[in-house]
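Hey, resending since the last one bounced:
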Amino acid sequence: MNVSEQIAARSLADDLKAISEHLAGAARFGAATAHRLSGIANSKLNEIDDSALNSESSVNALKGVAVLTKLANDSSEIAVNLLRANKETIDELNKPRDPKQDVTRVELVAMDDSSAN
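The structure tokens again:
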């Protein structure tokens, strides 16, 4: 490649690296948000009266839990997609291998002719 093509390729690589770093950061924040919202939703469950599920307070609490859970799931989307992106590769690496198909590396060493006599 000529110099201008090398510069363009390097610039593209830098851009892709920055995008990856920002998406990883967004995934981290999204996962943290999902965690916090899920915790709030979980604590909101204490407001539900199991013996009176149709009461106004229980119905309102259930609605709050549903909204918080939906927001938590939406917040985790980037992180889940990043994890899912490598799933096939990870599954392949974790497959049990057949030892008969493993390749063994053998190093060949030249023999000294004088030691053969």
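Residues 3-112 form one domain.

Sorry for the duplicate.
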